[in-house]
Amino acid sequence: MTRKRTKARPARKTQSRARKTPKPRTPQAGGEPLDALIAAGARSLGLKIDRRWMAEIRNQLTVTLRHGASVAEFRLLDDAEPAPVFEA
After folding, report:
1. pTM metric for this prediction
2. Looking at CB atoms within 10 Å, which of 35, 39, 56, 58 has the fewest?
């Protein structure tokens, strides 16, 4: 008795199953650029953020980043020293 010949199966594609990017667990309302930063910060601190607060958090973070950018733009001379601290 002889076996029937069957067609050879193509090799499995293991690369397609490898590491799919996980979907974000925290809300990203509107797809704003800062929402990913807010979501990552909340996730790292273990905080849950209500969707109603996302706009306010985004506004506060925008103001904070603008202030930080203006401080970073200010050039100091190489010979500048910190102000003296007086203690009573």
Report:
1. 0.52
2. 56
